[in-house]
Amino acid sequence: MMLIVLKLVLALGDGLLGVWVLRNGAFEKWAEATFQWRMAALQGIPAIALFVGLYLIGHQEVTSDVPGYYLPAAHAVLAGKLPFRDFMLSYAPLFPYVGAALVGIWDSGKMFALFAILVNAVALILWHRMGCLCLDRQTARQSTVVFATSGHLLLQALLGTNQVWIGAALAASALLIVMDRPVTSGLLQAVAAGTTKLLVPLFWPVLWICTGRRWRWLAMALLPVAALYAAFAGAGADVFYPLRFEGNLITSGNLPYLLDPWLGLADAAKRVLFDAALLGALGATTLWLFVRIRPLTTQQRAAALPAALALTGVVFLLMSKKSYTGYAVFVMYPIAAVLGIGLRKWRARVGFLLAFNTLLATEPSLWFHLGGFDKTLHEWLATGGGSAATGFILVDVALLACYVWVAWVSVGCIRRTTAGAMISSNASQSATACSLVKRASANSRARVPIDSSLPG
User: Fold this and answer.
1) How many whole angstroms separate alpha carbon 321 and alpha carbon 315?
2) What are phi and psi of 162, to 5 degrees?
3) Rounded to whole angstroms, how far apart are CA atoms 223 and 216?
4) Helix, strand or coil for residue 100?
5) Distance CA 99, CA 76 (A)
6) H or E segment at 288?
7) Fewer CB atoms inside 10 A, N or C side of the chain?
8) Neighbours of 72 (CB within 10 A)
9) β-pair partners for 110
10) Based on the number of CB atoms within 10 Å of its own CB, is 241 exposed (0-12), middle (13-18) or buried (19 or more)?
């Protein structure tokens, strides 16, 4: 329970720090270089202070996946073992080698937390530079303040999770797309896919849609990853193990979890249904984005990119049967930008972000603390979950309502961004159709006297 209280205090404390900075408004007057290093300090100083207090002075150990998965995998490759052949893991083939490099510097789970704090600072700068290119100055800066003071992001960095790595890689690739550098952007996504986990390609359709030279981007993202997995498969590795393993897992914090008690299906049938629903939702989202964004100019596509990333991220969080709240780290800046564009009332935006960050930070710990982590919601209720399960359902409903609201605001932002281009495109198509009809009519009239002069 103390861990939940600590997460609650950190999420609220960091968020209120952001509220104070936003309300003060002095950051609007700073020069660009001054703003960036002060935002890095705003994010980094609390993180480093907590790192020192918890891990160095308090002698606490990093929890979550680091001791259970990250460190054993790193030690395994240092011992000469091959991933997916000599030991199994649910991450990308090169992830243990990155871990081994970190362990070589400091053989402790704390090294992963320190590395995540540094990567988080890089992500902040990358996201802000992208925002400066595709958002107005005020929205870009306010979104950076929100990102720098996200309590959920702070906790993920302190836990040393590789969600932070994926978020930084996405920020870099998005920035490079806005700068019209698709080859480097695609290559960075290939590196991320080879060194983190299966979730990296989740945002590839959006990046592909928004880039100006789509096939170059796709080739640079896809071919190195295919070659990497082929090389490991050739060495005898079971490269499909992560897909099978992750496909059997469930978490709280998503629509399938809440619907489980009312479906009355076998577990295998429910997994198939939930996976099909996820693919259908992501496919429909991608198709809608493609139709809306395809007619846009390069500059307009850049303006639509943050909202498209935010929408894809929350659709996944809402519909995937395994969607830890930590995955929201991938799109925390785009979500802040979308709310800055679509939710202009300052108090409403600040209140929503405080509640959202608090739910993201505490929901998984509540799930574990209340005893629902090792069973489906149906099993939890059937085995006497009682008031604990009911209370947790209310927490999850609130979290899902936040996801739905972000998706709604994202859709509105994309519609406003693309409205002019869609009208122009439709008008152009109508004009072309009218021109073809007139031409056909004229040709028909021109043939009448010729045809009437022919012998019967």
Assistant:
1) 12
2) -80, 0
3) 11
4) helix
5) 10
6) helix 267-293
7) C
8) 14
9) none
10) middle
Which residue's entry shows tokens 């935010």?
A: 310
Render the burial of 15-49: b for 16+ CB within 10 Å, e for the rest.
Answer: bebbbebbeeeebeeeeeeebbebbbebbbebbee
Give the residue among 259, 253, 260 at the shortest CA–CA distance from 364.
253
Query: Could you tell me where the DSSP H helices lie in 294-385?
Result: 298-319, 332-342, 346-369, 377-382
Radius of gyration of the chain (CA): 25
Between CA 296 and CA 302 the distance in angstroms is 9
Determine the Cα–Cα distance for residues 75 and 86; give it in Å rounded to an integer: 12
Alpha-carbon torsion, ordered 88, 89, 95, 99, to 10 deg: -90
Structure tokens at 158: 């302190």
> In this structure, what token pair is assigned to residue 345?
């009332």
Q: How far apart are CA 112 and CA 313, in angstroms?
A: 24
pLDDT in tens, 103-158: 999 999 999 999 999 999 999 999 999 999 999 999 999 999 999 999 999 999 99
CB–CB of 350/325 below 8 Å? no
Q: Please answer whether residues 399 and 325 qualify as being in contact, where contact means their C-beta atoms are separated by less than 8 angstroms.
A: yes
Residue in this structure with the two tokens 């160095």, named with its chain if needed: 56
DSSP 335-355: HHHHHHHH---HHHHHHHHHH
* Global model pTM greater than 0.85: yes
Tokens of 238: 């079971």
Q: Give the pLDDT of residue 401.
A: 97
The 8-class DSSP code of residue 52 comes to I
In 10 A of CB 156, how many CB atoms? 28
Does residue 430 register a pLDDT over 50? Answer: no
Domain boundaries, the chain: 248-421
Quick check: 317 and 253 in contact, CB under 8 A? yes
